[in-house]
Specification:
alpha+beta, TIM Barrel, 14-stranded antiparallel β-sheet, 2 domains
Length: 683
């Protein structure tokens, strides 16, 4: 899964932030995924201040390996740096820089530069270990203003937000929680020793922990206090950004999308009251007074979009809402944390889409993805199904390390509990076999394509589930009997496919140094520190290999269109960049040959039906929840007009994407519409 941690698309530094101080002995940190050891980071500090780092982990069959060397200068800011290794998806990592004689000089696999250096500025590499970010934060803590300019633009800053004294195995451990801002669209939280050294102690997320070795048991206390700080931050944003729509709201003379028929209708007056859709009439037909009026002329009203393949995190709510995504299906997460997050959003305490969770069940293996339940027997898997059913889940998601022979009895057990069955195709099983064993849905177009190209011995728990596609998918003849037979099987059984084609676009088509095609058309709107990282490809593709992978990616799009044309139900998910990523997913459907109106139906009506909430969502009808987005333009003509969402309504609350984007450091796409005060509707 792309970006399975739920953070921004920028890897390396964007994955983790830490802080360490000089130490006579090496410092070792445990990297833990859902209570399972996944790797380590070893940091050595020489007497002259030079720091070397070895950083490696594995989760979900992949992870980085890097060796780093840097030297701190004034105020502990690194003045020289070099890194080498492999990225999470296997691309080469190689970068270096130096501050000397008032200049900054750098070279990486995508660019190089030589320019005057701003006094006190810091440099953010494309990919780095937590230790480099650690040194950066240590430098910011020492500065009176706690901030610094970044080479390339912008500023970063740190703020102390909490303190704790923990009882460790060797006595009290005083720690402080710091928030770093300016490096991403949301703060990064991390823990330092509060003993004058500012040594990195831990960084914790619900899905991943980096903790000083020997103190792993303290992580839950840190996570609880950190969650309180994050909730306070998000709660403030909710109070600042949410606009309650009290009384009646009229969206006047607006074009609107009939998602059931996949047609644009209107212009019409659309009335809202109490968080529900009211009458939809000819313009001016109701002459009563509205408490607020939004002008719809030149705009399009759509049902709230669904991202049907998310791995939601608290800070992701702003991304989704800004893109008009009012509902997400979470396809695997820390169960307890996700349910608490869902409740907070449902109560209106923090901003975010409504979450419909799918219960992840993974088999225990060296390649396991550590989210949901990781089980070592069929009986344990059935118990996990029961846990999900008792908590109102609507479906389960099976993953790569599930034993193939478990699928049929596990699917039958799930259906007895009223749960749908979706997921990856387990290793050493083909998609056709998974469907025949009881799958209601296949997730990811690569999992579908593997049905045709997987070879005996391929272990698709590893990167082979991507590289086999890149090498061989180009050879598939969609007119062949095998392809027609499989697509007919999906159609006959009503098997849903969640393609997430956007997840694979940069993976299979991007050359190092070129802009990520998934975000190229919005690059100028992204936070400044994202822009350079858009040129980092997750795989090293050149020459004939790049040509082959691009042909294979086109075949993934062709397969998506062939399934849609045959009547196979599709739903749209991202498994990556929230909000804007869904816009790109739909644009890729259009590129594949699906009509824009059909693409919009996939992200609204199809999604609501598969999620089991089409009685309250997914279409603009009287009595349904007022989950809506207003677009400046017409995405049925130009699907990229979805970027131009000017207002989002979730129940009885409105959000202006322009304000959401500004809060995250984005350049807004369009201004918010004016909400006029009480007036007579027909005048």
């Amino acid at each position: 899964m792309a970006n399975s941690l739920g953070l921004s698309t920028i890897s390396g530094l964007y994955l983790l932030v830490a802080c360490l101080g000089a130490a006579a002995e090496p410092l070792e940190y445990s990297i833990v995924f859902q209570r399972a050891a996944g790797g380590k980071m070893v940091v050595e500090s020489a007497p002259d201040g030079r720091v070397t780092v070895d950083y490696s982990y594995r989760d979900n069959g992949r992870g980085p390996d890097m060796h780093e060397d840097f030297r701190p200068g004034a105020l502990a800011a690194p003045v020289s740096y070099a890194v080498a290794g492999k990225s999470t998806m296997g691309a080469e990592i190689k970068e270096s820089f130096t501050f000397a004689e008032g200049r900054i000089r750098w070279i990486s696999r995508i660019d190089e530069g030589d320019e005057p250096a701003v006094d006190g500025a810091v440099f953010l590499p494309l990919e780095s270990s937590p230790a480099y970010a650690a040194q950066l934060v240590r430098s910011l803590v020492q500065r009176p203003e706690h901030s610094a300019a970044v080479v390339g633009g912008n500023r970063v800053a740190v703020e102390r937000v909490a303190a704790l004294t923990l009882e460790g195995s060797t006595g009290p451990v005083p720690v402080t929680l710091w928030a770093l801002t300016g490096a991403d669209a949301e703060p990064w939280y991390f823990w330092l020793r509060d003993d004058g050294s500012n040594t990195f102690f831990a960084q914790v997320y619900p899905w991943m922990e980096i903790v000083l070795k020997g103190h792993e048991s303290l992580a839950p206390q840190l996570l609880e206090r950190q969650a309180q700080a994050q909730d306070a931050y998000l709660g403030n944003l909710q109070r600042k950004l949410a606009q309650p729509l009290t009384g009646s709201t009229l969206i006047r003379s607006v074009r609107w999308f009939d998602s059931k028929a996949a047609l644009m209708r209107g212009p019409s007056d659309v009335w809202l009251f109490g968080g529900r859709i009211g009458p939809i009439t000819e313009p001016g037909a109701i002459a009563g007074a509205a408490d607020q009026v939004i002008e719809g002329a030149g705009r399009t009203l759509l049902p709230g979009l669904f991202d049907m393949h998310a791995h939601h995190w608290a800070g992701g709510g702003l991304y989704h809402l800004a893109g008009g995504v009012t509902s997400v299906r979470d396809m695997g997460n820390n169960n307890a944390d996700l349910l608490m997050l869902k409740d907070r959003i449902d109560r209106g305490e923090i901003p975010g889409p409504t979450i419909y969770p799918a219960g992840l069940i993974e088999g225990k293996s060296p390649f396991s993805f550590h989210g949901g339940f990781v089980v070592d027997s069929l009986e344990a898997a059935k118990a996990a199904v029961d846990w999900y059913a008792a908590r109102g889940y609507r479906q389960i998601k099976l993953y790569n390390s599930i034993h193939p022979e478990w699928v049929k009895p596990l699917a039958a057990h799930a259906k007895l509990r009223g749960l749908r069955v979706a997921g990856h195709v387990p290793a050493f099983m083909r998609a056709e076999e998974a469907v025949q064993a009881g799958y209601d849905e296949l997730t990811h177009i690569n999992q579908v394509m593997l049905n045709f190209v997987v070879q005996p011995g391929d272990d698709t728990r590893t990167l082979a589930r991507f590289t086999r596609i890149g090498e061989d998918a180009q050879q598939l003849d969609l007119a062949s009997p095998a392809a027609r037979k499989f697509i007919d099987l999906l159609h006959q059984r009503g098997t849903v496919v969640d393609p997430t084609v956007g997840t694979f676009e940069s993976m299979f088509t991007q050359q190092q140094g070129q802009v990520d095609p998934s975000l190229a058309d919005v690059a100028d709107h992204l936070p400044v520190l994202w822009r350079r990282n858009l040129k980092v490809a997750s795989m090293d593709l050149e020459g004939d290999k790049l040509t082959a992978y691009r042909r294979s990616y086109q075949r993934l799009l062709d397969l998506t269109f062939a399934m849609h044309r045959a009547g196979v139900p599709l739903v749209a998910g991202t498994d990556g960049t929230a909000g804007l990523g869904l816009h790109r997913e739909l644009a890729l459907y259009v590129k594949a040959g699906i009509a824009p109106l059909e693409a919009l139906r996939i992200a609204t009506w199809n999604a609501a039906r598969v999620a089991g909430v089409d009685d309250i969502k997914g279409s603009i009808e009287r009595g349904k929840l007022a989950d809506l987005l207003l677009v400046d333009g017409d995405p049925s003509v130009n699907i990229t007009d979805l970027h131009r969402v000017s207002f989002v309504i979730k129940g009885g609350v409105g959000y202006a994407p322009a304000k959401l984007y500004e809060e995250m450091g984005f350049k807004p796409f369009v201004e918010a519409p004016r909400i006029e005060p009480a007036r007579t509707a027909g005048k």
